[in-house]
Write a structure and sequence with these properties.
This protein is of the alpha+beta class. Helices cover about 30% and strands about 25% of the residues. The structure holds adenosine-5'-triphosphate and manganese (II) ion.
């Protein structure tokens, strides 16, 4: 029986095999019926939809039938027939059933439908078996393919930045240190500090917070690159939009300035949203029906409208005017302050009612590598702000002038010993270039309509939580 070739349920449901005897394998979602006949809903992960298995009870031993419960895995052979029942177009008349693995109803935690997302997080190892997480992980896959397709078709080189990094100039204070030194009794220098000479890399190292600096080196040779990999931030912020381990997509392009960088960001993100609508329709429909009735409208809305582009200074004026009219915010807002997500969402959801790209931030609140404007006060950074999410992309035109970059690094306290190699790109054949980082899980929040970032990555890592 196991020798017979398995047909995936997504293909079975196309209906073209009606009349044929086929073999399917999957996990029992529900089982109902009466004395004479059992109806088993089988799901194999290839689609959100289940296949109905119809089993005449007298054909099978009661011993076998008693082991077919929610969560059990089955191999079923039978004829595919058109279904008389409502809710499905085809079903299998079971001729042979093998239980590959039972799932004890006493202990299997996914008995009933409608578990809370909080509960499912505690069983992240089993939640892929729910409709919701099956849909989310299939969408996650499709969005990865969307991203690779977008850049590949446009001649970008997929570049692999290191995950263990020796430069901590970007995220000082929020990096996860990597060491093989014994924590109980580490070797010390004479001054009492750790003796990193004895560490694995003979220097302090950490998990990367961004592949950008290395990505720039590649863009300044290959022309256009993108990275797509895990990044790590030890920021102790327990929010629905922050993970300690998340995936980031970072394109970097030589010979473009900030305008083209904004065009790229907008076109790229629209491509991703369109892809979701084109290739994840069933899963998005399910999520929309169960979690967020406005999801599909919101996706279409982003596709239709050009993103509103304005400067940070203009944003502050709008926010200050709102405050003057009585709008309350938790955090104070004034020129020089970093906008928090309540401010960003006010601009996107209440003021403009479209995605927004904010440029020209005060240099003090942005990184040392952003190109300084002629006013000497602002830098050519750009953040893309989205409804429900706030910041989804952060990027900039990079400072390509050696002397200006040197000075900015000094002002921001970035030691030369950490970025000597980065400075070399401005010493030899420097050129204008720009890029940005898209948080993959923030994109997934938008596309799935989920509201907690812990629900769009298989095994979330957050403060005080690294189970599984
Ligand atoms: P935020 O202000 O939201 O904390 P950031 O300004 O620190 O973000 P960047 O350094 O600009 O973020 O990173 C680029 C992108 O990576 C962000 O626009 C966001 O989409 C994503 N991102 C940043 N931090 C996280 C995180 N902790 N978890 C998930 N995604 C993140
Ligand atoms: Mn940012």
């Amino acid at each position: 029986m196991l020798q017979m070739k398995r047909t995936k349920i997504i293909d079975v449901l196309k209906g073209e095999l009606v009349g044929q005897t086929i073999c399917v394998k999957g996990w029992v979602r529900t089982r109902r019926g009466n004395k004479a006949v059992s109806f088993i809903a089988l799901n194999d992960g290839s689609t959100i939809h289940n296949l109905q298995i119809v089993a005449d009870n007298e054909r099978f031993s009661s011993e076998l039938m008693s082991t077919i419960s929610t969560g059990a895995s089955l191999c079923v052979v039978g004829q595919l027939v058109s279904s008389q029942g409502a809710g499905q177009s085809v079903e299998i008349q079971a001729e042979r059933i093998e239980v590959l693995g039972t799932a004890d109803p006493e202990s299997y935690p996914l008995q009933k439908k409608g578990h809370s997302l909080e509960f499912l997080r505690e069983i992240a190892h089993l939640r892929p078996r729910t409709n919701t997480f099956g849909a989310i992980y299939r969408i996650r896959h499709q969005m990865s393919i969307a991203i690779h397709t977008y850049f590949h078709e446009r001649g970008f080189v997929y570049f692999h930045a290191p995950i263990i990094t020796g430069s901590d100039c970007e995220g000082a204070g929020q990096m996860f240190q990597v060491t093989t030194l014994p924590l109980e009794k580490p070797p010390l220098c004479e001054d009492g500090g750790l003796d990193y000479a004895q560490d694995f890399f003979a220097r302090p190292t950490a998990l990367t917070v961004s592949g950008q600096l290395e990505g720039e080196m590649a863009a300044m040779a290959l022309g256009a690159i993108y990275t797509f990999g895990p990044t790590f931030r030890a920021e102790n912020s327990n929010t629905p939009r922050h993970l300690a381990e998340f995936w980031m997509i970072e394109p970097e392009v030589a010979f473009i300035e900030i305008e083209e960088n904004m065009d790229l960001a907008e076109d790229f993100i629209k491509h991703c949203v369109q892809w979701a609508l084109d290739y994840c329709a069933d899963d998005i429909k399910f999520l929309s029906e169960h979690f967020d009735k406005e999801l599909i409208d919101r996706l279409n809305f982003v596709l239709e409208k050009p993103f509103k582009r304005l400067t940070y200074t203009e944003c502050i004026e709008i926010l200050e005017a709102a405050v003057a009219k009585g709008r309350k915010f938790e955090f104070p807002i004034y020129w020089g302050a970093d906008m928090s997500s309540e401010h960003e969402r006010y601009l996107v959801e209440e003021h403009f009612c479209t995605p927004v790209i904010v440029t020209d931030y005060p240099k003090e609140i942005k990184s040392f590598y952003m190109k300084l404007n002629e006013d000497g006060k602002t830098v050519r950074g750009m953040d893309v702000l989205f409804p429900k999410i706030g910041e989804i992309i952060g990027g900039s035109e990079r400072e390509s002038d050696y002397d200006k970059l040197r000075q900015r690094a000094e002002e921001m306290g970035v030691p030369d010993k950490d970025i000597w190699w980065y400075m070399d790109s401005r010493r030899y054949g420097t050129a204008p270039h720009a890029g940005f980082g898209l948080g993959f899980e923030r994109l997934l929040l938008f596309v799935t309509g989920m509201t907690n970032i812990r629900d769009v990555i298989p095994f979330p890592r957050t403060p005080r939580n690294a189970e599984f």
